[in-house]
């Protein structure tokens, strides 16, 4: 794993939270994006080398809606940048981690993503992110 790519925060209202985080971080969000397959609308902030992703549910059956119902607003996941997501999934499976989606899928912010089950990572949902290269 190369670095922390971003921290994902589940929010009830993306517009309200965009305003709050703009005040907190002193910068405006640089991108909003909907990931239809996950039932989520995202907003990204960059503060120095760090990124924060706000996640709001677009339907009541989405993973974010279920998270908010169960736990309320707050940190949803931590994402790590990887160079080769397929190799990293294989390595982590060999180490005994449970991968929630063994085939990487298209996520927000031009990334391929896969998640590790939080039961094997001390309750933290871990996301692996690989930049999708043009061409």
Task: List the main descriptive attributes of the protein structure presented here.
single chain; 135 residues; alpha+beta; eight-stranded mixed beta sheet; 3 helices; 8 strands; 23% helix; globular; Glyas_Bleomycin-R_OHBP_Dase
Structural class: alpha+beta
Quaternary form: single chain
Q: Catalogue the unreliable spans.
A: none
Sketch the major β-sheet: 8 strands, mixed
* Residue share in helix: 10-25%
Tertiary shape: globular
Total count of strands = 8
Whole-number mean pLDDT: 95
SSE topology:
Layout: E1 3-10, H1 14-25, E2 31-35, E3 40-47, E4 50-57, H2 63-71, E5 74-81, H3 85-94, E6 105-106, E7 111-116, E8 126-131
Parallel strand pairs: 1-4, 5-8
Antiparallel strand pairs: 1-5, 2-3, 3-4, 6-7, 7-8
Describe this structure in words.
By secondary structure, the chain is an alpha+beta fold. It is built from 3 helices and 8 strands; from the N terminus they run βαβββαβαβββ. It has helices at 14-25, 63-71, 85-94; strands at residues 3-10, 31-35, 40-47, 50-57, 74-81, 105-106, 111-116, 126-131. Strands 2-3-4-1-5-8-7-6 form an 8-stranded mixed β-sheet. Strand 2 and strand 3 form a beta hairpin. The two termini are 24 Å apart. The model has no long low-confidence stretch (mean pLDDT 95).
